[in-house]
Amino acid sequence: MKARVTVTLKSGILDPQGKAIEGALKSLGVDGVASVRQGKVFDIELAATDKTKAEAALKAAADKLLANTVIENYRVEVLG
Amino acid sequence: MKSAVLVFPGINRERDMARALKLASGNDTAMVWHAETALPKGTDLVVVPGGFSYGDYLRCGAIAARAPVMDAVRDFAAKGGLVLGVCNGFQILCESGLLPGVLMRNAGLKFVCRDVHMKVERSDTPFTRGYNAGQVIRVPVAHGEGNYEADEETLKRLEGDGRVLYRYCSADGVVDETSNFNGAAHSIAGIVNERGNVLGMMPHPENHVEEIMGCTDGRGLFAGLVQQFEKAA
User: Fold this and answer.
1) B116 — pLDDT class (breaks 50, 70, 90)
2) Numbered residues of chain A with Cβ closer than 8 Å to any chain B Cβ
3) Which of B58, B63, B105 lies closest to A17 in CB terms?
4) CA distance B215 to A63
5) Per-residue model confidence (pLDDT) at position A49
6) Of B89, B195, B186, B228, whose CA–CA distance to B145 is shortest?
7) Separation of alpha carbons B177 and B183, rounded Å
8) Cross-chain Cβ contact B105/A65 below 8 Å
9) Which helix (H) or strand (E) holds B7?
10) Which secondary-structure segment (H or E) carries A39?
11) Rounded to two decimals, what is the model's pTM?
12) Burial (0-12, 13-18, 19+ Cβ within 10 Å), A17
Protein backbone atom coordinates (compact mmCIF):
# COMPACT_ATOMS: atom_id res chain seq x y z
CA MET A 1 0.00 0.00 0.00
CA LYS A 2 1.43 3.35 -1.03
CA ALA A 3 1.02 6.44 1.05
CA ARG A 4 2.20 10.00 1.23
CA VAL A 5 2.85 12.27 4.21
CA THR A 6 3.17 15.97 3.44
CA VAL A 7 4.79 18.20 6.06
CA THR A 8 4.40 21.97 5.83
CA LEU A 9 5.33 24.85 8.11
CA LYS A 10 2.48 26.27 10.16
CA SER A 11 1.25 29.64 9.00
CA GLY A 12 2.94 32.43 10.89
CA ILE A 13 6.24 30.51 11.14
CA LEU A 14 8.95 32.42 9.32
CA ASP A 15 10.21 30.43 6.33
CA PRO A 16 13.53 31.91 5.15
CA GLN A 17 14.03 29.08 2.63
CA GLY A 18 10.61 29.73 1.09
CA LYS A 19 11.44 33.44 0.92
CA ALA A 20 14.72 32.71 -0.89
CA ILE A 21 12.94 30.43 -3.38
CA GLU A 22 10.27 33.09 -3.88
CA GLY A 23 12.98 35.67 -4.63
CA ALA A 24 14.68 33.31 -7.09
CA LEU A 25 11.42 32.59 -8.93
CA LYS A 26 10.75 36.31 -9.23
CA SER A 27 14.24 36.97 -10.54
CA LEU A 28 13.74 34.16 -13.11
CA GLY A 29 10.75 36.10 -14.39
CA VAL A 30 8.14 33.48 -13.41
CA ASP A 31 4.91 35.46 -13.54
CA GLY A 32 2.48 35.98 -10.73
CA VAL A 33 4.32 34.35 -7.81
CA ALA A 34 2.75 35.90 -4.71
CA SER A 35 4.52 33.81 -2.09
CA VAL A 36 6.29 30.46 -1.57
CA ARG A 37 6.28 28.19 1.48
CA GLN A 38 8.44 25.07 1.26
CA GLY A 39 7.89 21.73 2.92
CA LYS A 40 8.61 18.01 2.71
CA VAL A 41 6.98 15.02 1.09
CA PHE A 42 7.49 11.43 2.29
CA ASP A 43 6.42 8.58 -0.01
CA ILE A 44 5.97 5.54 2.16
CA GLU A 45 5.21 1.93 1.28
CA LEU A 46 3.26 0.06 3.92
CA ALA A 47 2.78 -3.65 4.52
CA ALA A 48 -0.74 -2.99 5.82
CA THR A 49 -3.69 -3.62 3.53
CA ASP A 50 -6.28 -2.06 5.81
CA LYS A 51 -6.73 1.64 5.11
CA THR A 52 -7.70 2.60 8.67
CA LYS A 53 -4.68 0.80 10.11
CA ALA A 54 -2.43 2.38 7.51
CA GLU A 55 -3.68 5.84 8.37
CA ALA A 56 -3.12 5.21 12.07
CA ALA A 57 0.47 4.06 11.41
CA LEU A 58 1.17 7.09 9.24
CA LYS A 59 -0.25 9.43 11.85
CA ALA A 60 2.00 7.83 14.47
CA ALA A 61 5.00 8.18 12.15
CA ALA A 62 4.24 11.86 11.59
CA ASP A 63 3.64 12.62 15.28
CA LYS A 64 6.69 10.71 16.51
CA LEU A 65 9.23 11.74 13.90
CA LEU A 66 8.32 13.11 10.48
CA ALA A 67 6.89 16.41 11.72
CA ASN A 68 7.88 18.71 14.56
CA THR A 69 4.38 19.71 15.56
CA VAL A 70 5.69 22.82 17.32
CA ILE A 71 6.23 24.41 13.91
CA GLU A 72 4.85 22.00 11.32
CA ASN A 73 1.52 20.61 10.14
CA TYR A 74 1.17 17.33 8.30
CA ARG A 75 -1.28 15.64 5.99
CA VAL A 76 -1.59 11.89 5.57
CA GLU A 77 -2.87 10.32 2.32
CA VAL A 78 -3.26 6.63 1.56
CA LEU A 79 -2.84 6.35 -2.20
CA GLY A 80 -3.85 2.67 -2.43
CA MET B 1 32.31 15.68 38.76
CA LYS B 2 31.60 12.60 36.66
CA SER B 3 30.44 13.55 33.22
CA ALA B 4 29.17 11.58 30.25
CA VAL B 5 29.33 12.88 26.68
CA LEU B 6 26.86 11.36 24.24
CA VAL B 7 28.15 10.27 20.85
CA PHE B 8 25.93 10.06 17.79
CA PRO B 9 27.04 9.39 14.21
CA GLY B 10 27.95 12.76 12.69
CA ILE B 11 28.75 14.47 15.99
CA ASN B 12 32.14 16.19 15.80
CA ARG B 13 32.68 18.23 18.98
CA GLU B 14 32.64 15.39 21.48
CA ARG B 15 36.42 15.39 21.97
CA ASP B 16 36.57 19.15 22.42
CA MET B 17 33.87 18.80 25.05
CA ALA B 18 35.61 15.90 26.84
CA ARG B 19 38.86 17.91 26.86
CA ALA B 20 37.17 20.97 28.36
CA LEU B 21 35.47 18.81 31.01
CA LYS B 22 38.75 17.10 31.90
CA LEU B 23 40.50 20.44 32.14
CA ALA B 24 37.87 21.74 34.55
CA SER B 25 37.22 18.64 36.65
CA GLY B 26 40.45 16.66 36.37
CA ASN B 27 38.40 13.56 35.61
CA ASP B 28 38.11 11.56 32.42
CA THR B 29 34.77 11.75 30.72
CA ALA B 30 32.72 8.72 29.70
CA MET B 31 31.89 8.66 26.00
CA VAL B 32 28.45 7.12 25.66
CA TRP B 33 27.34 5.66 22.32
CA HIS B 34 23.82 6.49 21.15
CA ALA B 35 22.66 2.87 21.17
CA GLU B 36 23.30 2.49 24.93
CA THR B 37 20.22 2.21 27.10
CA ALA B 38 21.82 3.35 30.35
CA LEU B 39 24.24 6.04 31.52
CA PRO B 40 27.38 5.08 33.47
CA LYS B 41 26.68 4.69 37.19
CA GLY B 42 27.30 7.83 39.22
CA THR B 43 27.02 10.24 36.29
CA ASP B 44 26.66 13.84 37.53
CA LEU B 45 26.44 15.63 34.20
CA VAL B 46 25.32 14.52 30.74
CA VAL B 47 26.56 16.54 27.78
CA VAL B 48 25.03 16.42 24.32
CA PRO B 49 27.81 17.86 22.15
CA GLY B 50 27.79 19.71 18.85
CA GLY B 51 28.18 18.47 15.31
CA PHE B 52 25.84 17.24 12.64
CA SER B 53 24.18 14.12 14.00
CA TYR B 54 22.81 11.98 11.18
CA GLY B 55 23.90 14.67 8.72
CA ASP B 56 21.07 16.93 9.94
CA TYR B 57 18.72 14.68 7.94
CA LEU B 58 14.98 15.34 8.35
CA ARG B 59 15.51 18.21 10.86
CA CYS B 60 18.58 19.12 12.93
CA GLY B 61 18.70 16.78 15.91
CA ALA B 62 15.46 15.00 15.02
CA ILE B 63 16.87 11.51 14.57
CA ALA B 64 19.38 11.70 17.44
CA ALA B 65 16.57 12.85 19.75
CA ARG B 66 14.86 9.46 19.20
CA ALA B 67 18.00 7.37 19.89
CA PRO B 68 17.82 4.74 22.69
CA VAL B 69 20.24 6.65 24.95
CA MET B 70 17.87 9.63 25.03
CA ASP B 71 15.36 7.65 27.11
CA ALA B 72 18.09 7.24 29.73
CA VAL B 73 18.81 10.99 29.50
CA ARG B 74 15.12 11.78 29.98
CA ASP B 75 15.04 9.59 33.13
CA PHE B 76 18.25 11.20 34.37
CA ALA B 77 16.82 14.70 33.83
CA ALA B 78 13.52 13.74 35.47
CA LYS B 79 15.50 12.83 38.60
CA GLY B 80 17.14 16.26 38.59
CA GLY B 81 20.42 15.29 36.88
CA LEU B 82 22.22 18.09 35.02
CA VAL B 83 22.13 18.01 31.23
CA LEU B 84 24.03 20.40 28.96
CA GLY B 85 23.39 20.56 25.21
CA VAL B 86 25.61 22.64 22.95
CA CYS B 87 24.82 23.57 19.34
CA ASN B 88 23.52 20.35 17.75
CA GLY B 89 23.07 19.22 21.35
CA PHE B 90 20.65 22.13 21.92
CA GLN B 91 18.76 21.12 18.78
CA ILE B 92 18.63 17.51 20.00
CA LEU B 93 17.30 18.57 23.44
CA CYS B 94 14.54 20.65 21.78
CA GLU B 95 13.61 17.79 19.47
CA SER B 96 13.55 15.34 22.38
CA GLY B 97 11.08 17.49 24.30
CA LEU B 98 13.52 18.20 27.15
CA LEU B 99 13.50 21.87 26.19
CA PRO B 100 10.69 23.91 24.61
CA GLY B 101 10.87 25.59 21.21
CA VAL B 102 12.87 24.89 18.09
CA LEU B 103 16.05 26.03 16.33
CA MET B 104 15.18 27.38 12.88
CA ARG B 105 17.35 28.35 9.91
CA ASN B 106 19.41 31.48 10.67
CA ALA B 107 17.46 34.57 9.62
CA GLY B 108 20.24 35.53 7.18
CA LEU B 109 20.19 32.00 5.68
CA LYS B 110 23.97 31.72 6.09
CA PHE B 111 26.01 29.33 8.18
CA VAL B 112 27.76 31.57 10.73
CA CYS B 113 31.19 30.53 12.04
CA ARG B 114 32.85 33.20 14.18
CA ASP B 115 33.18 34.55 17.70
CA VAL B 116 30.13 36.27 19.18
CA HIS B 117 29.41 37.85 22.52
CA MET B 118 26.76 36.83 24.96
CA LYS B 119 25.54 38.17 28.23
CA VAL B 120 25.18 35.99 31.30
CA GLU B 121 21.73 36.90 32.58
CA ARG B 122 22.06 35.46 36.09
CA SER B 123 24.72 33.75 38.12
CA ASP B 124 22.60 31.72 40.55
CA THR B 125 22.31 28.56 38.44
CA PRO B 126 24.61 25.51 38.12
CA PHE B 127 25.28 26.55 34.51
CA THR B 128 26.25 30.16 35.21
CA ARG B 129 27.68 30.23 38.73
CA GLY B 130 31.19 30.59 37.32
CA TYR B 131 30.24 34.04 36.00
CA ASN B 132 28.80 37.27 37.36
CA ALA B 133 25.28 38.31 36.41
CA GLY B 134 25.51 40.75 33.50
CA GLN B 135 29.00 39.58 32.53
CA VAL B 136 29.74 39.60 28.78
CA ILE B 137 31.70 36.64 27.43
CA ARG B 138 33.14 35.88 24.00
CA VAL B 139 32.40 32.44 22.55
CA PRO B 140 32.54 30.86 19.09
CA VAL B 141 29.44 29.85 17.15
CA ALA B 142 29.27 27.53 14.14
CA HIS B 143 25.74 26.85 12.99
CA GLY B 144 23.26 27.30 10.16
CA GLU B 145 20.19 26.66 12.30
CA GLY B 146 20.46 28.49 15.58
CA ASN B 147 17.53 30.85 15.31
CA TYR B 148 15.62 29.99 18.49
CA GLU B 149 11.85 30.26 18.14
CA ALA B 150 8.94 29.39 20.40
CA ASP B 151 5.33 30.51 20.64
CA GLU B 152 4.56 33.77 22.48
CA GLU B 153 3.25 31.95 25.53
CA THR B 154 6.47 29.93 25.89
CA LEU B 155 8.68 33.00 25.41
CA LYS B 156 6.71 34.85 28.04
CA ARG B 157 7.17 31.96 30.48
CA LEU B 158 10.91 31.68 29.71
CA GLU B 159 11.40 35.38 30.38
CA GLY B 160 9.06 35.51 33.37
CA ASP B 161 10.78 32.58 35.08
CA GLY B 162 14.29 33.85 34.32
CA ARG B 163 15.07 30.83 32.18
CA VAL B 164 17.02 32.71 29.51
CA LEU B 165 20.55 32.29 30.89
CA TYR B 166 22.56 33.50 27.90
CA ARG B 167 21.66 36.20 25.38
CA TYR B 168 23.54 37.46 22.31
CA CYS B 169 24.90 40.98 22.72
CA SER B 170 27.59 43.34 21.48
CA ALA B 171 31.10 43.39 22.97
CA ASP B 172 29.93 46.04 25.44
CA GLY B 173 26.79 44.17 26.40
CA VAL B 174 24.13 45.83 24.26
CA VAL B 175 21.36 43.43 23.24
CA ASP B 176 19.99 44.62 19.89
CA GLU B 177 19.20 43.51 16.35
CA THR B 178 22.77 43.93 15.14
CA SER B 179 24.22 41.60 17.76
CA ASN B 180 21.41 39.09 17.23
CA PHE B 181 23.22 37.57 14.25
CA ASN B 182 20.92 34.57 13.72
CA GLY B 183 17.58 36.26 14.37
CA ALA B 184 16.75 34.31 17.54
CA ALA B 185 13.62 35.35 19.44
CA HIS B 186 14.63 37.73 22.27
CA SER B 187 18.30 37.24 21.22
CA ILE B 188 18.22 33.89 23.02
CA ALA B 189 21.53 32.01 23.05
CA GLY B 190 20.76 29.59 25.88
CA ILE B 191 17.75 28.51 27.96
CA VAL B 192 16.99 26.08 30.76
CA ASN B 193 13.97 23.85 31.32
CA GLU B 194 11.37 24.59 33.97
CA ARG B 195 13.29 22.76 36.69
CA GLY B 196 16.53 24.50 35.75
CA ASN B 197 18.60 21.33 35.34
CA VAL B 198 18.71 21.13 31.52
CA LEU B 199 20.55 23.84 29.57
CA GLY B 200 20.65 24.19 25.80
CA MET B 201 22.89 26.77 24.12
CA MET B 202 24.07 27.41 20.56
CA PRO B 203 27.59 28.83 21.22
CA HIS B 204 30.56 26.57 22.00
CA PRO B 205 32.03 27.41 25.43
CA GLU B 206 34.22 24.28 25.16
CA ASN B 207 36.19 25.97 22.38
CA HIS B 208 37.27 28.90 24.55
CA VAL B 209 38.91 27.23 27.53
CA GLU B 210 42.68 27.28 26.89
CA GLU B 211 45.15 30.10 26.25
CA ILE B 212 46.11 28.58 22.91
CA MET B 213 42.51 29.04 21.73
CA GLY B 214 42.93 32.80 22.08
CA CYS B 215 40.27 33.19 24.74
CA THR B 216 39.27 31.44 27.95
CA ASP B 217 35.82 32.95 28.47
CA GLY B 218 34.18 29.52 28.23
CA ARG B 219 35.97 28.24 31.34
CA GLY B 220 33.47 29.78 33.73
CA LEU B 221 30.69 27.48 32.63
CA PHE B 222 32.71 24.34 33.30
CA ALA B 223 34.31 25.70 36.47
CA GLY B 224 30.84 26.56 37.76
CA LEU B 225 29.58 23.03 37.09
CA VAL B 226 32.56 21.53 38.92
CA GLN B 227 31.97 23.89 41.86
CA GLN B 228 28.35 22.78 41.96
CA PHE B 229 29.42 19.21 42.71
CA GLU B 230 32.17 20.18 45.11
CA LYS B 231 29.53 22.02 47.09
CA ALA B 232 27.17 19.06 46.98
CA ALA B 233 29.87 16.58 48.02
Assistant:
1) very high
2) 13-14, 16-17, 20, 64-66, 68, 70-71
3) B105
4) 43
5) 87
6) B89
7) 8
8) no
9) strand B3-7
10) strand A39-45
11) 0.94
12) middle
Q: CB-based contacts of B74: which residues, under 8 Å, 6+ apart?
A: B96, B97, B98
Q: φ, ψ for residue B201 (rounded to 5)?
A: -145, 145
- Among this protein's residues, is B206 annotated catalytic? yes
Please count the other Cβ atoms lying within 10 Å of the Cβ belonging to residue B76. 21
Quote the mean pLDDT of chain A: 94
CA within 13 Å, CB half, B196: 12
Identity (one letter) of the amino acid at B18?
Answer: A
For A27-64, write each residue's pLDDT tens digit: 999 999 999 999 999 999 999 889 999 999 999 999 99
ipTM: 0.86
Looking at residue B227, its amino acid is Q
